[in-house]
From TrEMBL:
The lineage of its organism: Archaea, Methanobacteriati, Methanobacteriota, Stenosarchaea group, Halobacteria. It catalyses: 6-carboxyhexanoyl-[ACP] + L-alanine + H(+) = (8S)-8-amino-7-oxononanoate + holo-[ACP] + CO2. Belongs to the class-II pyridoxal-phosphate-dependent aminotransferase family. BioF subfamily. It comes from Haloferax mucosum ATCC BAA-1512. This is 8-amino-7-oxononanoate synthase. Pfam families: Aminotran_1_2.
């Protein structure tokens, strides 16, 4: 009895979180929060006015008066929260109107709203319960977590490489049972590289092997044809089985969606645990997204964004930087972590906020600064950004 007591008192089954944080600090890996005054293209951070080239609020709609008004009207007319899961009492006309609008943009029978893009991916992949998932090596964390939760065999193929996918499909098909369910999963736009998945080739391979396709349009939704994503740009709406996306980036609010057939949506309503056991999206988020989507469809904002993207890409390129990708996200490749960190610091001194992306987020030797232009950056802001990159790059001998 006595010895039992002694043993218990020397045990420590707790969690040493301090030690973890200290280790992160020591290796320069600790992340911290940095509050800003608002989420516009020019805002106060550390009580200084700064130009922000870091937000996914690509169309600048999170501070647009029309979108703000829609959010407050939804709060007044419907409520600030949904009060329950959609399957209980949290289903409103407003939710259905946004789902109809999104279905029109995505050219599918239906869409279903989730509380976030993260919840949409995790819940949908797990609900489909595939036997084998073929996944791009750089897919978003929410896709990776969906694969884990589904407990499927996950086969990772080389980034944006349809030939690599073809090899993996062929080799896995050697010992496949006939009734196995296969899912090919990819982001459409990769936010750290600004590149685009080879969707047409992926669809051809999926058709050849009878696999399903799930694509994540988080960074593309709202920015292409009629407010759609890459799937719409490439005319592949009928070839993709499941389109996932978020309302939290260009659509300026919060929430996720899944677009697909009527049957898919009915199945998810029954089977996706992150839908069934989570409160319906808050009405202000639904109202804001609905108006943001209308503005995105209208086109003028999209045109401003792409104009800013072109000016920045050409400007950075012409002073000697290497800019990756082919989309609205502009990753400026530096290579060495120290160079990227120092450039980030110099840019901040000139009131430009564009975050450094370094290992482990990206592979060793590919540290970069991720520049995310917004439709609402003025010509002066774009000029200021370019001249800060030029001055700092020359000073540091990077260009
Ligand atoms: C941001 C993002 C998500 C998550 O969306 P949230 O609505 O922020 O949860 C999912 N997939 C990709 C590719 C993303 O970039």
């Amino acid at each position: 009895m006595d010895s039992d007591t002694t043993e218990t008192s020397t045990r420590d089954h707790g969690f040493d979180l301090e030690a973890d944080l200290e280790t992160r600090e020591r290796y320069g890996l600790r992340r911290t929060l940095e509050p800003a005054a608002d989420v516009s293209a020019r805002t106060r951070i550390d009580s200084r006015e700064r130009y922000v080239f870091a937000a996914n609020n690509y169309l600048g709609l999170a501070t647009d008066p029309r979108v703000q008004r829609a959010a407050s009207e939804a709060a007044r007319a419907v409520g600030t929260g949904s009060g329950a899961s959609r399957l209980i009492t949290g289903d409103t006309e407003l939710h259905r109107e946004l789902e109809d609008d999104l279905a029109a943009v995505k050219h599918t029978d239906r869409t279903l709203l989730f509380s976030s893009g993260y919840a949409a991916n995790v819940g949908t992949i797990a609900a489909l319960d595939p036997d084998v998932i073929f996944s791009d090596e750089l897919n978003h964390a929410s896709i990776i977590d969906g694969c884990r939760l589904a407990a499927a065999e996950t086969v990772v193929y080389d980034h944006c490489d349809a030939a690599s996918l073809a090899v993996k499909l062929r080799s896995r098909s050697m010992d496949a049972a006939d009734d196995e369910r296969w899912l090919i999963v990819t982001d459409t736009v990769f936010s750290m590289d600004g590149d685009v998945a080879p969707l047409a080739a992926i669809c051809d391979l999926a058709a050849q092997y009878g696999a399903w396709t799930l694509v994540d349009e988080a960074h593309a939704t709202g920015l292409y044809e009629d407010g759609g994503g890459i799937v719409q740009r490439d005319g592949l709406s009928d070839s993709i089985d499941v389109q996932v996306g978020t309302l939290s980036k260009a659509l300026a609010s919060q929430g996720g969606y899944v677009a697909g057939s009527d049957t898919l949506v009915e199945y998810l309503v029954n089977e996706a645990r992150s839908f069934v056991f989570s409160t319906g999206l808050a009405p202000p988020a639904v109202g804001a997204s609905r108006t943001a989507l209308q503005i995105a469809r209208d086109g003028a904002r999209r045109a401003s964004l792409w104009e800013n993207v072109e000016t920045l890409r050409e400007g950075l390129d012409s002073v000697g930087y290497r800019v990756l990708g082919e989309t609205n996200v502009l990753p400026v490749l530096l290579g060495e972590r120290v160079d990227a960190i120092e450039l980030d610091r110099r840019l901040r001194e000139q009131d430009i906020v564009a975050p450094v992306i370094r290992p482990p987020t990206v592979p060793d030797g590919t540290s970069r600064i991720r520049v995310a232009p917004m439709a609402t950056h003025s010509d002066a802001a774009i000029e200021r950004c370019l001249s800060a990159f030029e001055t700092a790059g020359r000073d540091l001998g990077l260009i």
